[in-house]
UniProtKB/TrEMBL annotation, chain A:
Residue span(s) of domain EF-hand: 28-63, 106-141
Protein name: EF-hand calcium binding domain 2
Matches recorded under Gene3D superfamilies: EF-hand
Species this chain originates from: Cyprinus carpio carpio
Pfam families linked to this entry: EF-hand_7
UniProtKB/TrEMBL annotation, chain B:
Catalytic activity: O-phospho-L-threonyl-[protein] + H2O = L-threonyl-[protein] + phosphate; O-phospho-L-seryl-[protein] + H2O = L-seryl-[protein] + phosphate
Stated family: Belongs to the PPP phosphatase family.
Its EC number(s): 3.1.3.16
A molecular function (GO) term: iron ion binding
Enzyme class: hydrolase
Residue ranges crossing the lipid bilayer per the database entry: none
GO biological process per UniProt: detection of stimulus involved in sensory perception; negative regulation of MAPK cascade
Organism: Cyprinus carpio carpio
Protein name: Serine/threonine-protein phosphatase
Cofactor list: Mn(2+)
Amino acid sequence: EVTETSKKSIVTFSEIHHFLLSDTIITETQKRISNAFDVFDHESNKTVDVREIGTIIRSLGCFPSEADLHDIIAELEEEEPTGFVRYEKFLPTMTKILLERKFRPITEDLLLQAFEVLDQQKKGHLEPEELTKYLTQEGEPFTQEEMDEMLSAAVDPDKNVILYKDFVSMMTFDDTR
Amino acid sequence: MGCGVTKTSEFNRKFDKAMKAAVLIQRWYRQYAARMEVRRRYTWNIFQSMEYADLQDQIKLYNFLGYLMDNFTPSKNEVCRDAEWERYFSYNNITVPDIYSGPRLTFPLDMDQAAHLVEAFKNKQLHSRYVLQLLLETWKLLRVLPNINRVSTCHSKEITICGDLHGQLEDLLLIFYKNGMPSLEKPYVFNGDYVDRGKDSIEILLILFAFLLVFPGDVYLNRGNHEDHIINLRYGFTKEVLNKYKLHGKRILKLLQKIFSWLPLVTVIDQRVLIVHGGISDTTDLALIARVDRHRVSRTNGKSHRILSSALSSDSEPESSEFTDTGNDEWKQILDLLWSDPMSHDGCIPNEVRGGGCYWGPDVTEGFLNRHNLQLIIRSHECKQDGYEFCHNRKVLTLFSASNYYEVGSNRGAFVRLGPDLVPYFVQYQATSMTRGLSFPQNVKRTEHTALKVLREQLFVHKSDLLSAFQEIDKENTGLICLNDWASAIERVLHLDLPWRVLHPQLVSSTTDGKLDYHGWFRDLHIEQTMLETLYRHRSTLETIFRIVDTDNSGLITFEDFRQTLKLLSAYLKMEISDEVINELVISTDTNNDGSIDIDEFMEAFRLVDKSRLERGKSLEYT
């Protein structure tokens, strides 16, 4: 039978547990951020080029849009923009992003649905020109380089079409190790 | 139905849905590409830190190997005059057999013969007679060239500049294909590091020297830090020549040693652009550079060699005043030119990583350019992913022409063209048919795979040190260690500046409750049984030493030579080994009892030495 006292102690215990856990989580999180930052800190002086921020954030598992990144970078830049972002500024911002789980991952089925939407005639595949048109003209358009890179992995070399179902499962499988 | 990450829109128009789908795909792909980029980046870091770490160890041995060289090469009673050397290098008594199907050169060379050489090297080897003849002519020419090449872009000539080639013939062929071969209308500057690492170093040299002989006013060669016979011992060029030219390889190498010392140091275009292999320091003075006797300035004038030599000679005489401070200055000036790297902070600090030259900052560039009335420094020496890279406010350009330097797909190569306006025009390339078939993610994975393989070998090689480090942390001997401790232990032991926590998923296959079973982990590193840990670490050094001592390249060294080597090594390492122990070691090394020592027995001997020292609690670290 759960009495008031025991309920309280359960609550207190779980609060402490949560506090301890989150402290560990924060330290672990900050270590992850520090390591990802270091990969791009070429001069080993705790700064990275502002143009690498997007890559760093994404490498930590987040899926921001270009607009999201634009806002984050505006927050991270110095009063007088130097082209560099300092670690002291990056750490708290990134910790918050990770702990709040902003910019959550896009799952395999969501991705598949998106391709299916683009495949208006329900062919089961997309022509390279079709996909190119959508991705370089709509939304947050790809550069030609981004488009070429994606096509090199996506286009079936024999049929010259994008079998998006296979593509999605192949790409999402790659991630798991 | 719609994309779950945004609010369901009231509008159900196909257009709106399609746009949302596009945004989602873009958002997802950019994340994927970012993760690929990170993997590519740390793969790059792995290769770079391994390269520099390796070089660092080697430089520490540089002086010792030099001393060993002087004791074991026939030049002990060295002839002083060039005429006598020309007799030694004589090719006249070398006959070329009828079945030889390679190029037969006639001197003086002409353009057709040079072009024919380029074609022939795709599948043929030049006979040693012609090699020696070509090298002799090159040596004669280089001896009259100044330290500073001066080039002009007048007559609307565009000058093509190439960076490091490192024995990668395919890249040179690609450059000639894209840009045309050197000629009166097409002048070239080659910025050093023609040899080592790649497998066709001698062919590249022969091609460049041939064009130099045919167009001496339109081909300019700078010396690189790899145009050095001691570096060549370690990084593959010596081995390549001895393998390709079994009979005359040593003679060819000796001649090349002289040629390298006679290569010009820098090139200046229109008195405005400096081309040098490594870079500059805050004391670099072109007027001084112009005056040095470049072929005489070498490590033998350097301070450290002097100390070593007097420590080891039993009847030491006081060194002559020949080795004055001037000798030291000149050596430093040349070292700076060939070994320095730019850095982003102001200042000038010694380059500890490379063991020679310095790191120089934007302020040093500014000062140097102003003092000498120049506008741009073009240098090489460092591999760049895109083949070239600007720094110091676009006043310094790094140019690297060996594509796929670390591994297939690791980087592009580049060359640059300068016209009278001195505005650089870049051409990039990647010389291998294999990359063309691969998609971008496949390329990244392939390069990553090689980098990780190399890294795993390094981890395995340091197994005993790592094990001690782990056991120090795991005091209760549970056999388990958490990832944080794993990472810090590795950092301490390996001294490789790498993001170990980012790498750990690639290096550690499984953990239980966030802890790693480190004994099991070593077993899983999948290294072949034959690769013994202690040997492998020093294998390349030991091979180098053996090759020096084996003066007739027979694959065998005498007991006496081996004894000498051990004595020198022990003096250098400040170890106390009695003659008795050395004698015992020598005899026990000849395991097949044939009266001489081959390379396997040689390696085995050092493993024994290493183990016993380990048992005494010391490590075989060279000071």
